[in-house]
Design a protein that fits this description.
926 residues; alpha/beta; seven-stranded mixed beta sheet; six-stranded parallel beta sheet; 32 helices; 15% strand; globular; Aconitase_B_HEAT-like_dom
Length: 926
Amino acid sequence: MTIYQDYIQEIEERKIQGLHPKPIDGAELLSAIIAQIKDKNNEYRADSLKFFIYNSLPGTTPAAVVKAQFLKEIILGESVLEEISPAFAFELLSHMKGGPSIKVLLDLALGNDASIAKEAANVLKTQVFLYEADTDRLKAAFHSGNEIAKEIIESYAQAEFFTKLPEAPEEIKVVTYIAGEGDISTDLLSPGNQAHSRSDRELHGLCMMTPEAQKEIQALQAQHPDKSVMLIAEKGTMGVGSSRMSGVNNVALWTGKQASPYIPFVNIAPIVAGTNGISPIFLTTVDVTGGIGIDLQNWVKKLDAEGNVIRNENNEPILEEVYSVATGTVLTINTKTKKLYNGDQELKDISKSFTPQKMEFIKAGGSYAIVFGKKLQTWASGILGIEIPTVYAPSKEITKEGVGLTAVEKIFNKNAVGLAPGKVLHAGSDVRVEVNIVGSQDTTGLMTAQELESMAATVISPIVDGAYQSGCHTASVWDKKAQANIPRLMKFMNDFGLITARDPKGEYHAMTDVIHKVLNDITIDEWAIIIGGDSHTRMSKGVAFGADSGTVALALATGEASMPIPESVKVTFKGDMKHHMDFRDVVHATQLQMLQQFGGENVFQGRIIEVHIGTLPADQAFTFTDWTAEMKAKASICISEDDTLIESLEIAKSRIQIMIDKGMDNHLNVLQGLINKANKRITEIKSGEMPALTPDSNAKYYAEVVVDLDVIVEPMIADPDVNNDDVSKRYTHDTIRDLTFYGGDKKVDLGFVGSCMVHKGDLKIVSQMLRNIEKRDGKVEFLAPLVVAAPTYNIIDELKAEGDWELLEKYSGFEFDDNAPKGAARVEYKNMMYLERPGCNLCMGNQEKAEKGDTVLATSTRLFQGRVVEDSERKKGESLLASTPVVVLSAIMGRIPNIDEYKTAVEGIDLTTFVPSIKELVTVGH
């Protein structure tokens, strides 16, 4: 069969699934299609024309190279087609978004045919995805006196690619659709277990919510063809849990509009809303597509006559509905008044959804076009030697005289791009910042690669200190889906300039280490800004932001990110940590005490948590920062003492050296460069030239939380509360309970020690507990399965050297083998311990899962419905989150222990402890 016939066969197979032909990204297939188009008598010519025009991917894909070249032939008259005129060829080039299309347009614009050059110039004036190779050609032509080049550069200086776009409509009619009650996780919009299909947008779209919900959305669209469907989280926040671009893509696919008639399944401008707004990282992703995110506040706390909050028997605020957004309600969004209406009735001021910057995103069809447009305008103005004309809304700049800086404000000011000398900005200011470290993970990486292709990027920005492509989300099972996707991803990213978990050349062992752990190790400066394609990109050094695959692509391509400086909440500690407690209990208690201190209001949501953790090295401190994703914080920052920071940097250096020794460094010697930077930073701290980052004493915070260690007397468990009568209270991370609540008799079907929340100390706790039980009882028996997945290979190597791994092997019924990885996910578990490959494992839920309906006790981060465990007909699956000793003991006993059983089991165990620094204790006491 020919490659074209293979494609036709694939089309027939997709028809069975109700899918259209897969978009073409390969050069070989498109070349065959072009050959059939040129053959006037070819039986496949009509279909080939459709595939060429409507079904090939733009940007820097191999198909785009072939397409652009053929369109050039048509424009030059070398190929004559009745169906594609030269004018239509220019139109098609204008939709190809950069890379080979820009090269062709420049060839034509700078060529000898004046009329063609003029047409090419007109198209080029609408384009923004130009890189150095493109601008260098324009610059050289300009300096050699080329009038067309001058005309194009003058147009760029005036940003006509933006100013000539139509304005956003003043009124947008919407019809509401309640996607769920309570927080809506991005797992509902793009399930983790369907991660393998994310780069096939139409196929992946079938997994959004349920088939029934999709039909209901279609019915609303049929009933209201002139309106957009607005997806709503009733009594909750939309898009919690992760920054998933695929979630926004799915919403846009079902409710948005097509970005271009010539680019299949790329939709933009979705409209989403939530009673409590949109999760910050998800809202950034909505901005990428030029969409709208609305904070409805349609349910508020009920007040008595004196203005006090009325509470129920559980001491929770009673909510009352201010206005209805029930499915099928027709509303009007007015972008001019920036208000939401039901008919003539004003419901809500939604001006936060329509800041000048967001209006620009809407007008341009997404934030990328604005980022690249600003860079292009700046370049062109520089070439012409003129001041940059004011086109874009000026960045919001907030400076508060006499007010100091929080840690995040200091980091943003240090890394800001284009800030006037001496200017100091506070929270709320819009800032472009340079990004130091970038991380891409494997289930979103294919989309990041697509985004890089679509914005015509071919190499990593030279200002990025280091970037890593992980293999952790697909580490559990080396199935056909992983085998098809991961090698392709690793080759693309390796070629692009990232350090990759797998070596496309096969020269070093596949490293499936958890992405956040690796990023935590390669961050060698607490002043760094980190962007990562996962919501748990929360480092214990620097400030890290979980981001969608597109924002990751933008950071890789430009070395920059744009965002407002977030407000901060200061967290300090007082009292003494009980010897039988683990630091994970302090983390959970922080969430509980914060909610208690602020009457149920989550002051962490959308803000930076500045945690004054002082004495905890990076690995242990990461347990806190990692959890801040579940606290709905935008990010977190650890304030460390000098000696602790130096210790963390030395650990980071040693682990980076291991990566170098394994052959993972690239031709740019990125990893060695990181070690050099770490040495420089250590010298600065030791000499006193630049001590560890601290906020100013007169910094202003949104709130301050003081965690009382004295009142944490029992292990704390985050409970999904699956049977709560109030649906909106289920599957949040706000229900924190102590051990006694469970009465010592709640059955546990499976225990899981793993994910990014554990460190080497946790694995040592497992071995110490096994050793103690063996000494006491002569043997260890598990009454429930225990799955153990170390986050990194380094940890396993260190455990082997220290004698712990041998004991774990003794009591395991299964141990991973990298030479023969599992080819299928486990569906049943025996009452024994499983030593799984380093990586995310059960926490990700895309490969391994617990048995349906199980009660799982895990060290994981995710308790969302269906993530770790799905419901069964007999009962709801539930994933409770706890410390390592609680999980291990529960697996051994087959139930959650009582406090006395727990205290006995951890006697003599070296738990992860924490002592607040003296400096912080003095501050809190004062």
